[in-house]
Each structure stands twice: as C-alpha cells, then as structure tokens.
Amino acid sequence: TDISLSNGKLRAKTFKNKLNLNLNFTDATLGNIINGRIYCNYSDIYIKESGQLRFDSKSSTIEVLQADRLDADSRRDKFRVRLIDQIEANGNFSSFRLGNLTKSAKLRTSYGDVEMENIDPKFENIYLEARSTNLNLYFDAESKFNFEVTESKSNLDFGREVKILDTVELDAKEKKNRHKCSFGEKPSGVDKLIINSVAGEINVLSY
Asked: How far apart are CA 24 and CA 81, in angstroms?
C-alpha cells in the first residue's frame, strides 16, 4: 500500500500489507501497521501498534504506543515510544523518549536527548554513541549487568547501584576516559551497556 499526502489529515485503522507512507505537513493517526516505511517532513504522527517501522523523518513529532522494532534516520524530530522491543536510530538534533524498552537499543545521536524511562531487567544490549547529547537511562533496581563508558568532556551521574570498577585515561588533552562499571550485586558476563559520549551528560540510574 502506497500513500502520499501533503497539507492534510490521515486517519486509518489497520494496514496488513507492507505500507509506504510519504507525508508532508500532515497530521496522521494510524492504528495497526504490520510493516511500514514512513517518509515524513513537518508532520505529527500517532501510531497505536506496529510490527516493523522504518522512519526517514525531519522536523516531525512521532508517537508510537507499541512497536516490535523501530528503525529511524532522523533530523530535528521528537520521538515518543511507549513500549518497544528493539530500536536502531541515527539522530541529529532529535530527541528519543522510550517508555519501556524490553530487548535492545542502538542509537547514534548528535545534539539531542535520549531518555529510557524503564529498561527491562532482562534487556539484551544497549549501544549509545552520542555527541553533545544528554543520556538518561533508568534501570530496574534489581538489574545486574556490567557496562563500559568511554567519554570526554562529559558529566557522569550514576545511581547507588553502580560501582566504577576501573578508570583508564585514554587522552589527557581531550579529557577522554574509559570507565568499567557494574550495576547491581556482582553481575557476570559481557558488557550489556556500551556508551561512547563526547560533551554530554550521562545518567545511569534506577527507577
């Protein structure tokens, strides 16, 4: 199903076929999308439920209640996703606010904000590459995992569940350090959270 719309409103319930949407200056409210690719500029989009979604977006506000997987190439957008299993996105001047994250996230962001309000204790992995971006990550207090933060010129705020096990100075001039950390009591296994940050805020806390 292919739909293009400019300067209008779109209301639709269910798309069972693969959906290609092209929206400009549009207000869209959509029900269930099994598999969709959405190109949007200067639009407001609300999606109730989705399987796989792919966004190529600019200067838009996007709210999704539930998604299995979301991919995005984003510029100057506001994303709000209430419940998501997997997300992979590149963002410039964009904000990503995730309510409940159950499995994995891979985000590359510049000049934006990332907030993960409720990360499942059984999450698989999170990889964040951020420049001039504020990262706010909230984990279940009962979670147990190892993680690594490589940062320069960044502010760190870790909750009481976090222990910094080791810090290595990588570049004194750039104030670049690598911190090996743990969350919770005596976790084992590989690092489940990897953060690379330049000039931002990194908050790893519990909810």
From this structure: 21
